[in-house]
Write a structure and sequence with these properties.
This protein is an alpha+beta fold. It contains eleven helices and 13 strands. Bound molecules: coenzyme A (COA).
């Protein structure tokens, strides 16, 4: 007999964290590589015509983008200004303090879906973590605005570990469950990456896309019948300047010139590729060994979505053979790199078909460097 939500919420706690459900918000608009490159190359023409004595800027190319990254398209919140060669950044109209802010709005949409899929009422959630690469403002915390919009009591706070924010959020939520400090925690990752991408930078203009995800982490005692047991979580950080964004309130007076480019996302992509792949592969293998899990027996890897080649190498080291789409699904092709949300989108879209007992891995990696693993097993 199915328990009523009230009975569930009164069940004795186990201290065992599970993922009860996930949610996803995808912006309606998307930009194909063809559209992106046409706009970039129009900007290059304008720039070179206006600066005949300067080193000419080079064209971008659709073929390069797809071959180097695997990205074919990305969703964005503000398409037309990004593609306008005279603007090339999102232009979201400023909202008043009494209106829901953009990050909160898309976070709430993803969170509502997670709650609905879990059959959970907002008043039964104890905490909201807004875990994302960049917050729209320093305070009040985005998480508290999301908490208020959903009608959740308890507490919320923001956390930023760049592309690993969601897995760091899941471990934090899992630790609240393990300690008995919460029964139900929403980890929300609204990623408006288009706002911190330099759309005029040939090396990186194709990388990111906008999205929001939500993960409901709960005590096993109150979880819906079908859920994902969290077998173990592991986090790692190693300082690196190879992915960096210097934007902040100590440099707010910087003029809008080319030398402010480092106030947006910058990276040494080749170094990141070379250094992060072995670090993450080893971390996964070490954590699998600690948990007594045979890595080659993992049913599916939901990896961070930054580069298809990186994921191919990592999955080969973990599984012992090159993973197919079923073993390591890609969402990078249609979403681009969505920072912390990438592995959660992959999990959200490609986990329903797994059966009870199947074991998989959610894994993120990115700036910091930072990396997080969440080993999960389907229960139904
Ligand atoms: N269009 C056409 N050519 C381009 C280009 C573009 N948009 N951008 C760069 N190129 C050129 C370069 O100028 C270079 O030319 P050269 O060989 O004549 O010097 C060549 O393509 C190779 O550039 P490189 O930057 O070395 O490419 P890459 O194969 O390393 O791919 C990334 C670049 C960023 C896609 C890749 O390094 C990557 O994804 N790294 C990991 C990044 C990551 O995970 N970051 C975390 C972010 S959260």
């Amino acid at each position: 007999m199915q328990e009523s939500p009230m009975q569930e919420m009164q069940a004795p706690l186990t201290g065992r964290p599970v993922i009860s459900a996930t949610g996803l918000f995808t912006p309606a608009d998307s930009i194909s590589n063809e559209e992106l490159v046409a706009s970039f190359n129009a900007f290059v023409d304008r720039h070179n015509e206006a600066n005949p004595d300067a080193e000419p800027l080079a064209y971008s190319s659709v073929e390069f983008i797809e071959k180097a990254s695997g990205i074919k398209s990305r969703h964005v919140m503000s398409k037309a200004p990004i593609l306008d060669p005279a603007i090339m950044c999102p232009r979201l109209p400023e909202r008043g303090n009494d209106e829901l802010s953009f990050m909160a709005e898309i976070g709430v949409a993803a969170a509502r879906q997670a709650l609905e899929r879990a059959g959970r009422k907002p008043e039964d959630v104890d905490a909201v973590l807004c875990a994302a690469s960049n917050m729209q403002r320093p305070y009040p915390a985005m998480a508290i605005e999301i908490q208020q919009a959903l009608g959740i009591e308890g507490f919320g706070f923001d956390m930023n570990v760049a592309c690993s924010s969601a897995t760091f959020g899941i471990q934090t939520a899992a630790d609240y469950i393990r300690a008995g400090n919460a029964r139900s925690v929403l980890v929300v990752s609204p990623e408006i990456t288009s706002g911190h991408l330099n759309w005029r930078d040939r090396d990186s203009h194709f990388i990111f896309g906008d999205v929001a995800t939500a993960v409901l982490v709960e005590d096993a005692a109150i979880a819906p019948t079908e859920h994902w047991a969290i077998l173990g979580t592991k986090l790692k950080t190693v300082f690196s300047n190879n992915i960096r964004n210097n934007f902040g309130f100590l440099n707010r007076a910087a003029p809008e010139t080319a030398d402010t480019a480092d106030k947006l996302f910058v990276q040494e992509g080749r170094k990141v590729f070379r250094e992060v792949v072995p670090m993450v592969a080893q971390m996964i293998l070490d954590e699998a060994a600690r948990l007594g899990i045979d890595p080659e027996g993992l049913r599916r890897l939901w990896l961070h979505q930054a580069n298809a080649g990186m994921n191919r190498l990592i999955s080969t080291k973990v599984l012992g053979h090159e993973a197919n789409e079923d073993e390591s699904p890609t969402v990078l092709d249609t979403y681009g790199n969505t920072s912390s949300a990438g592995s959660i989108i992959a999990f959200h879209q490609h986990s329903d078909d797994l059966v009870a007992g199947d074991t998989g891995l959610i894994c993120s990696f990115g700036a910091g460097y930072s990396a997080g693993t969440v080993f999960v097993r389907k229960v139904s």
